[in-house]
Design goal:
The chain is mainly β. The protein has helices at residues 111-118, 130-140, 174-182, 209-213, and strands spanning 7-15, 22-23, 30-36, 45-51, 68-75, 81-98, 101-109, 121-129, 155-158, 164-172, 195-200, 203-208. A hairpin with a 6-residue loop joins strand 1 and strand 2 (22-23).
Length: 228
């Protein structure tokens, strides 16, 4: 999702253990900021382009990949605010060829993206709904309600499924397990053809395609021939 005419950046705080916080927005370093939500990807992600870095964050700070970025956005439409937290995953598109102009981008991922790669689920479930299993994995293995790095609790939107199951998770990453379960889920409230598991700005969602289709539309787009 591009941060353009719809949102303005109020704050963008770079933090690292044992180092002073830096407000990247106040320093005028940010040339573009994008973050992405996708119902076919388990977590949100982002990318921030940096130019004219007075702190030499890559060389002297230095950015090593365990920093956090807290971004506060304000809507230009209704003055509402929105805060999103990321981990710095990597530094990309580095161009230090000009002595007085260092440009690069910070690639950003959610805390659960990293936790998923460090966690394995090896557990059996007896006589459980799949929606109950998914909730247990999110709470016990990804700690989505514990507050994570920033003390931010993420909301869970889990649609109830039908049918009790006996399931063994054979040492899989949490997201692998939930994606596998989503293919075997049937909604208890409407006929369904499958589930998706994804993260949005409001938290994590485990929902049927039919429930997503029934949602009230947030925007309507009209297509027309060029020049009309």
């Amino acid at each position: 999702m591009p941060v353009g005419n719809e949102y303005s950046i109020d704050k963008c705080i770079l933090s690292a253990e044992g180092k002073d916080d830096i407000n990247l927005q106040d320093s005028g370093m940010i040339t573009s900021l994008r973050f992405y939500e996708d119902m076919f990807h388990n977590t949100i992600s982002g990318s921030m382009s940096i130019m004219n870095d007075p702190f030499d964050l890559v060389g002297k700070y230095p950015i090593v990949g365990n920093e956090t970025v807290t971004i506060t956005l304000t809507s230009d439409k209704d003055d509402s605010t929105y805060e999103i937290d990321f981990n710095v995953f990597s530094v990309a598109n580095v161009d230090f060829t000009k002595p007085n102009s260092k440009t690069y981008s910070l690639e950003l991922v959610s805390d659960e993206y990293l936790s998923n790669h460090k966690t394995m689920v090896s557990r059996s479930y007896k006589d459980k709904l799949i929606s109950e299993i998914v909730e247990d994995i999110l709470l016990q293995d990804l700690n989505t309600q514990s507050g994570g790095v920033w003390g931010l609790r993420k909301d869970l939107s889990i649609e109830s499924t039908t049918g009790k199951h006996n399931i063994i998770i054979p040492n899989w990453n949490p997201f692998h397990a939930i994606n596998w379960l989503s293919q075997r889920s049937i909604s208890s409230v409407r006929p369904s053809t499958g589930f998706v598991f994804y993260e949005s700005r409001s938290g994590f969602h485990f929902r049927s395609y039919e429930s997503l289709i029934s949602d009230f539309p947030l925007a309507t787009y009209t297509y027309s021939a060029l020049g009309l």
